[in-house]
Amino acid sequence: MLVNMAGAFVVGAFYCFAGFGKNNPSWAVPLLSAGIIATVCGFYIIFRYPLPGPFNIAYGELSVLLGVLLLGGSLALAKGWSLGPLALYAWFAGLSSVVVGAAFIYYGLASGPILAGAGFICTGLAGMSLGPAVWFKPFKFFRWPTGLFLLAAAVIWLMIGLGAYWMHLEKYKNFQPFGY
Questions:
Q1: pTM beyond 0.85
Q2: Please, what are the domains in the chain?
Q3: What is the spatial distance between Cα 51 and Cα 57, in angstroms, rounded to a whole number?
Q4: Would 128 disulfide with which of 80, 94, 108, 147, CB 3.0-4.6 Å?
Q5: C-alpha distances in angstroms, 162 versus 6, 38, 46, 157?
């Protein structure tokens, strides 16, 4: 999930740095792919509660918000629609992510609360800054902060996600499914 999100953020950052380019539907494909994964995984977490404590709320609900944003963005790009209305929704999703990030740091959640909190905060700031980036797209001054927040969040989530892969593979290296 986190590596999926990092990939989507890198694509979004490149799109920001490119000035939101011409309405090129090819940008919709990676956003659609990442949006499906984020939405499906987020709903699974929300309804099944597979994680300990508050992590289901943080990762599940925000994954759904991000997934829906990515799906909406992919549809808008594929159809040549403005991203402006979606940016309004992104502001609220971003605010939620900033609050969750602050809570991670304040309550010491996760094994690395500052890094995880920074990931949520950078993700949220990217969402909150998307509106000015879209509405004033000719000006790098408005686009580049969004792109930088996306890249920072991508690096953080990639570090956490790849570390989790490594840890889980080591932890379950001797696991055998029942019946084997």
A1: yes
A2: 2-170 (1.25.40.600)
A3: 9
A4: 94
A5: 11, 17, 23, 8
